[in-house]
Amino acid sequence: MSETPLVPNSNKFVKNWSLDAVLNSIPKLVTVTSPSSPLAFLHIIERLKTTPREGWLRFDIQHGESIADHMYRMSIITMLCPPEENIDKDRCVKLALIHDMAEALVGDITPPDKVPKEEKYKRELESMKYICDELLKPISEIIAKEFMGLWEEYEKGETKEAVFVKDVDRFELICQTIEYEKKYHAQKDLKEFFHVRWSIKNGFVLKWVEDVLREREAFWKSMEVESVVRPTP
């Protein structure tokens, strides 16, 4: 049992993470349902609604988007994929909704946390196995296998659907950055988040990025700030 509750985004959570410690920190509910009930799973992923995206907290953006907020808009964006791209949009929606699901137990780890990529993947894999094996498999082994397969597909990033959803992940971040720039004007220097633009692979997503960057420039010009520099590699 953890001596003090672990909460997402705390230093102790990031540095001394373990699945058991996180599970022990979650208030236990009296179980009155059958093992095949989805309630235990739903209570875990509720944390995605209440865990803020860590990057914004570093800039003191309070009441910013949650992990679930981010994944919801990603899902909507995937539905905007041009039909001529021949990408399975239904599968993309599922990938968007599941790709960060492990963060319900791991939290939103960002580069400044200095958690090695391998360690981050290990934590997320352990969390997804727990979600799928312990929470989803009693409901349906087929459902558990589908969720795990979708998460692994996104992590590998080899299918055109996974590549597209990774691009959407980055594009959504760019949109949110610009929206916070508008909200806080010059109070927050958020340009570091634009680096993701250089990892986008799909040409049509890059066109979306160009649209939002032009919108950004027009906004700053309207604020009589014409020295805003376009993101560079």
TrEMBL record:
The lineage of its organism: Eukaryota, Fungi, Dikarya, Ascomycota, Pezizomycotina. Catalyzes the dephosphorylation of the nucleoside 5'-monophosphates deoxyadenosine monophosphate (dAMP), deoxycytidine monophosphate (dCMP), deoxyguanosine monophosphate (dGMP) and deoxythymidine monophosphate (dTMP). The keyword Heme does not apply. Gene3D superfamilies: Hypothetical protein af1432. Residues 63-183 form the HD/PDEase domain. Homodimer. SUPFAM superfamilies: HD-domain/PDEase-like. It catalyses: a 2'-deoxyribonucleoside 5'-phosphate + H2O = a 2'-deoxyribonucleoside + phosphate. It comes from Discina gigas. This is 5'-deoxynucleotidase. Signal peptide: none annotated.
